[in-house]
Amino acid sequence: MAKTIFHPADQRGHANHGWLDTYHSFSFAGWYDPSKVHFGVLRVLNDDTVAGGSGFGKHPHDNMEIITIVLEGKLEHRDTMGHTQTISPGEVQVMSAGTGLQHSEYNHERNIAVKLFQIWIFPEERNIAPRYDQALFGTDGRKGRLQQVVSPAGSDEPGLKIHQQARIYRTELTTGSALTYHVVRPGNGVYVMSVEGLATVGGQTLDRRDAVGIYDTDSVNITAISDCELLVLEVPMN
């Protein structure tokens, strides 16, 4: 029988540093909840708002698959691999930190905040060579269906590649519409967050920024109670 873990939006970690207003689905920085350290290999799901003219200075990462999804505004990325890129709404960035790198993320707009999700996933293999990729995924590709934006390296599936047997999708559903997510890799779990709107996922009602983790199942039923946008992640549980 499927097992579920419900993560209400109002029980996430929260820190407001002025320049950064951030919510943590899993233990991060100064916020620790022993029941919310990770969901399988999903280690971080941060919901960040970066004020105009502010950002994260150069900082290091290693042995982590880092995915950034920009919802509003524009984020400039610079790294020690030589990339200087702007990430705009609808774009997804993946960065395999591997043996180690440093990067900075900055909002150069003075009067417009950047809103984004940053996701960290443990890699399948440690100490790989760092790599970077980025692509735009249009809204038409997720209306009424699952739009795959991340997939495992070496697969022929759509989406940007990461070094893990994990998949990330976005979808936008209209009121009353439904779809079923079929787990691709047996034993993986599925973590779903409502970005906006109301939906029922695996029998659990989700409001804005609520999330549910479901595992020991081969499919998850999703029904839109209102017009909604969802983030769907399939990840190994060990």
Account of the 3D structure:
This protein has 238 residues and is mainly β. The chain has one domain (3-235): Jelly Rolls. The chain is built from no helices and 22 strands. The protein has strands at residues 3-7, 13-16, 20-24, 42-50, 55-61, 65-72, 75-79, 84-87, 91-96, 101-106, 114-121, 131-136, 147-152, 160-162, 167-173, 178-182, 189-196, 199-201, 204-206, 211-215, 219-224, 228-235. The strands form 4 sheets. It has a 7-stranded mixed beta sheet with strand order 1-20-17-22-15-13-14, with no helix packed on it. A 7-stranded antiparallel beta sheet has the order 2-3-4-11-6-9-12, with no helix packed on it. A 4-stranded antiparallel beta sheet has the order 5-10-7-8, with no helix packed on it. It is globular, with a radius of gyration of 17 Å. The two termini are 18 Å apart. The mean pLDDT is 96.
